[in-house]
Amino acid sequence: MTDAANPANATTESALAPTPGHGRVLLAAPRGYCAGVDRAVETVEKALEKYGAPVYVRKEIVHNRYVVDTLAERGAVFVDQTFEAPEGAHLVFSAHGVSPAVHEEARSLSLKTLDATCPLVTKVHNEVKRFARDGYHILLVGHEGHEEVEGTAGEAPDVTHLVDGVEGVEKLPDFLHNEKLVWLSQTTLSVDETMEIVKLLHEKFEHLQDPPSDDICYATQNRQVAVKAIAADSDLFIVVGSQNSSNSKRLVEVALQAGSKAAYLVDYAKQIDPSWLEGVHTVGLSSGASVPEILVQEVLAFLAERGFSDVEEVTTAAEKITFALPRDLRPQHN
Ligand code: 0O3
Ligand code: SF4
After folding, report:
1. Which of 45, 60, 148, 150 is catalytic?
2. N or C end of the chain: smaller count of CB under 10 Å?
3. Residue 93 to residues 27, 61, 123, 286: CA-CA distances in angstroms?
């Protein structure tokens, strides 16, 4: 897959900067926090309130620098491996989910676990378990090394085959016609690229079955649709998000594919190079599912100071979905 999130891959036009007050911003909606991220961040906050610091978190709770740094300041301790949490400690599993082997390791270390896995990731875990039990091989479309994919594949490692990008299709083994085959996916992929991969998979394996429902979640899809709606009118597209955030990086790719002349991924407003604004009249702006709105507001302030004060929000969907906190952190358990 192309890494279009890398500024080096983007194109810029050099012309005169707009007269102050004449630039406009098209602000994508929905953007930012999805229901799964909201729940995961609140899980750590509530755990800190209820149990006190330190609360251990396996991996980044969500892939956002600001969120991780802020929670760390409040007493969350982020560890890479389960065994780094001391025996008996509280350990939160991140929104991206973990394999059964990780649950087992935490049990063996007598850790008190709080599972912040997004319910929509758990849904894919359950599909893997069910199809594996029913004798299927599973083609899991996703990015190699991503935590979500490791957790999902870990439900049935012997029959799950990762398909990473279009190139991944050719690397798959042959499957006999009587071997049952289904494809599933990571929740945060590009919808268009996934459809392209699935088309190739169907061409290669005539008997391949489709999943019972979408694995690319509502939030991923909605954010991509909103970016597409404004990218063609944007001379420059800024996506707020971290470099390790799959869904945020996909938004940069989508913006470029949908016609934005340039697109960049930034964690903070201060990372915007003023030269990107040269000759630009319209800036498209969005943020990944793990990004707090305050970071978008800082970008809007940065742009306003440079003449981009006319902000138009373009809304392509309304999101109302919320997820309940893990049981131990719900109000009635206090
Ligand atoms: O999966 P991704 O790298 O996009 O993760 P983020 O940035 O933390 O966003 C939340 C998505 C998620 C937890 C898995 O669906
Ligand atoms: Fe859940 Fe989708 Fe958000 Fe991932 S992006 S945490 S699957 S709602």
Report:
1. 148
2. C
3. 32, 7, 16, 27
Interval between CA 247 and ligand 1 midpoint (Å) = 6
Is 148 among the residues known to form the active site? yes
Pocket test for ligand 1, best of 3, 34, 67, 96 (most atoms within 8 A of CB): 96
- State the Cα–Cα distance between residues 202 and 96, nearest whole angstrom: 28
Distances (CA, A) of 308 to 29, 284, 312: 18, 11, 11
**What is the residue with the minimal CA distance to atom 8 of ligand 2?**
36
Q: Answer yes or no: is pLDDT of 283 > 60.
A: yes
In ligand 2, which atom is closest to the CA atom of 188?
Answer: 5
Ligand 1 close to Cβ of residue 118 (< 6 A): yes
Buried b / exposed e across 128-158, counting CB within 10 Å, b at 16+? beebbeeebbbbbbbbeebbbbbbbbbbbee
Mean pLDDT of 22-40: 97
In the predicted structure, residue 236 carries a pLDDT above the cut 80? yes
pLDDT confidence of residue 11: 36
| For residues 23-38, average pLDDT | 98
pLDDT at residue 9 greater than cutoff 60 = no
**Ligand 2 site: residues with CB under 6 angstroms?**
34-37, 95, 118, 120-121, 187-188, 217, 219-220, 247, 289
246-257 vs 218-231: helix axis angle to the nearest 10? 30
Q: How is 54-119 classified by DSSP, letter by letter?
A: -EEEES-SSS-HHHHHHHHHTTEEEESSGGGSPTT-EEEEPTT---HHHHHHHHHTT-EEEE---H
- Is residue 282 pLDDT above 50, yes or no? yes
Quickly state the pLDDT bin for 334 (edges 50, 70, 90). low
Q: Does 124 sit in the ligand 1 pocket, CB within 6 Å?
A: no
| Angle, CA 249 vertex, CA 247 and CA 255 arms, to 5° | 105
pLDDT tens profile 139-182: 999 999 999 999 999 999 999 999 999 999 999 999 999 999 99
Banded pLDDT at 6 (limits 50, 70, 90): very low
